[in-house]
Specification:
Helix content of chain B: 55-70%
Distance between the termini of chain B: 12 Å
Distance between the termini of chain A: 198 Å
Structural class of chain A: mainly alpha
Number of helices of chain B: 10
Low-confidence stretches of chain B: 22-50, 367-381
Order of helices and strands of chain B: HHEEEEEEEHHHHHHHH
Low-confidence stretches of chain A: none
Number of domains of chain A: 1
Helix content of chain A: over 70%
Radius of gyration of chain B: 25 Å
Strand content of chain B: 5-15%
Number of strands of chain B: 7
Number of strands of chain A: 0
Shape of chain B: globular
Mean pLDDT of chain B: 80
Strand order of the largest sheet of chain B: 4-3-7
Oligomer: heterodimer
Largest sheet of chain B: 3 strands, antiparallel
Order of helices and strands of chain A: HH
Chain lengths: ~160, ~375
């Protein structure tokens, strides 16, 4: 039965010790420890939250980047296509131009050749005429060297002229 | 789940042991009454033959409070009986004789009177029966409790200092912080929050103090040769009464309304109101008895198992020696369980206090209650 009867001394000292320990620990242990734990948990929760946010932002950025890349790629291929087309057009145009120029040159050359040929022919004709005149003069000079020949000739010519 | 498994294990162990040894112990107790008055500790020297072993003396000598730390007794070469003890201060107050303080060694183990007081079976009684005396001595329970609490305060303020310096707040906790922090977080997240609800912060210092107060005294009580502080009803009574005050002083209108006007048909109210009023006291009483009985039982079982060796060797030396390994094996097993119980009982006391506080501060009716209770599958650390 002695086991079940609390002794006054132990009751008193236990109560005193508990209260002292309670007030000491409340002020000097539990408050800072719980405060720090709460603070740390809050910091961890905050950083997790911000990490999540950053991750979301990163994902968004990535998708934006991909979009941009796709757009750029599209643009590039469009530009390439355009460039190729331009090139072809330019080449074709140049070819056309060249063809036209060439034909023009050929035509001009033909014209020039023709003109020179004509000139040459004219020259030849002139020379020929001059030569003929000279030869004829010489011949005539020889033939009409004498007075009688001149008269005979005039007579002949006069004779030819028929005065109708 | 874990708790249930542990409980099953404990129940099995205790049942087996009580079944196995109850008969022997009862028999021994009767035998012990007639035997010679002699305290023999488990580390003590056992005189063969002439002195009978008194199991009851040994067991109660261990679990009861005393005015000295008694380690062992031996018979010196001069034939005198010597006791290896640490004497402790005795503080007595009597309205007639005033205050008297002296060391317990002055009693010479009950052989001498000091200031008109005698030591009879570890209790101080006045020689003159008309004198009333209040014994406020620093008994071994008190002294051991003070030592344990000094260490507790030292450890906890040391940990708190580190937190205050920023260790564990912005950086990872280090060293002993890692041991204390999960326990504190456990009390907060698994005991206070689920049971009390959003008002838990107010009760955290009390719950933490109760938990560590019980735990450190349980652990100190496990040191061989130390006093059985938490297995003393005075110790648990103080904690129980404090819990009773904390619970009932924080009881709100809903709580008292439930007690004074329970939601039952009018006729049953006459039965229910006394039951409810009684339940206020039984809750605290159950806390007191649970802790007391658990810790006391553990200590008694260990000392019984060790005593068995000496009981058997009193019959025959061979039997005693032969039984020693069995006894030590069982005692070691119970000892390991006791370490577990040191934590479990501290947890249970704290948890039940939190549950009762939760009932006292609960705002609305059972809907809310279920909501709070739902996530509380208690987990042992």
């Amino acid at each position: 039965m002695e086991l079940l009867t609390p002794s006054l001394g132990l009751l008193f000292w236990t109560l005193l010790a508990f209260l002292i320990v309670f007030f000491i620990l409340r002020k000097f242990a539990w408050k800072p420890i719980l405060g720090s734990l709460g603070e740390r948990e809050k910091a961890i929760a905050d950083s997790l939250e911000s990490a999540k946010r950053v991750r979301a932002e990163m994902a968004q950025l990535k998708s934006e980047n991909e979009e941009l890349m796709a757009k750029a790629r599209e643009e590039r291929s469009a530009m390439l296509k355009e460039a190729r087309e331009t090139k072809d057009r330019i080449i074709n145009e140049a070819k056309e131009q060249a063809k036209i120029e060439a034909s023009k040159v050929v035509a001009e050359a033909q014209q020039a050749i023709h003109a020179q040929k004509m000139a040459a022919i004219t020259e030849v004709k002139n020379q020929l005429g001059k030569l003929v005149v000279e030869v004829s003069e010489k011949v005539l000079r020889k033939e009409l060297a004498t007075q009688e020949a001149q008269e005979a000739h005039i007579k002949g010519m006069v004779g030819e002229v028929k005065l109708n | 789940m874990m708790v249930n498994r542990v409980k099953c294990l404990l129940v099995a162990a205790f049942t087996m042991l009580s079944l196995t040894f109850s008969n022997i112990l009862i028999a021994q107790e009767h035998e012990g009454e007639t035997s010679h008055e002699e305290m023999v500790h488990e580390e003590g020297v056992k005189e063969e033959g002439e002195n009978k072993f008194d199991a009851k003396e040994v067991i109660f000598g261990h679990v009861m409070d005393a005015h000295e730390f008694h380690f062992y007794s031996y018979k010196g070469s001069d034939g005198e009986e010597h006791h290896a003890t640490i004497p402790l201060p005795v503080i007595l107050y009597s309205p007639q004789k005033g205050l008297s303080t002296f060391m317990s060694s002055k009693f010479h183990h009950g052989h001498e009177e000091v200031d008109g007081y005698r030591l009879v079976e570890n209790k101080i009684v006045p020689v003159d029966p008309s004198v009333q005396v209040y014994d406020l001595s620093l008994t071994r329970n008190v002294v051991q409790m003070f030592i344990a609490l000094a260490i507790l305060v030292w450890l906890m303020t040391g940990v708190a200092k580190r937190y205050r310096e920023g260790q564990g707040v912005t950086t990872a906790p280090k060293g002993f912080q890692n041991a204390v922090e999960p326990v504190i977080a456990f009390i907060r997240d698994e005991v206070a929050k689920p049971n009390i609800g959003h008002k838990y912060k107010k009760f955290m210092p009390y719950l933490l103090t109760v938990f560590f107060f019980i735990l450190i005294n349980n652990i100190f009580g496990l040191i061989p040769g130390s006093a059985n502080v938490t297995g003393n009803i005075a110790f648990t009574a103080v904690l129980g009464v404090l819990s009773f005050l904390v619970i009932n002083l924080n009881g709100n209108k809903h709580y008292w309304g439930h007690i004074m006007n329970p939601p039952v048909p009018f006729g049953i109210k006459f039965i229910m109101v006394p039951v409810e009023i009684l339940s206020i006291f039984t809750k605290a009483f159950a806390l007191i008895i649970r802790l007391f009985a658990n810790m006391l039982a553990g200590h008694i079982i260990i000392i019984c198992l060790i005593s068995l060796i000496f009981i058997f060797s009193a019959i025959s030396k061979g039997v005693g020696v032969g039984f020693a390994p069995v006894s030590v094996a069982f005692a070691s097993f119970i000892y390991i369980i006791e370490v577990l119980i040191a934590f479990i009982q501290a947890y249970i006391f704290t948890n039940l206090t939190a549950v009762f506080i939760g009932q006292a501060v609960e705002e609305t009716h059972h809907g809310e209650d279920d909501h709070h209770q739902a996530p509380t599958e208690p987990v042992i650390i």
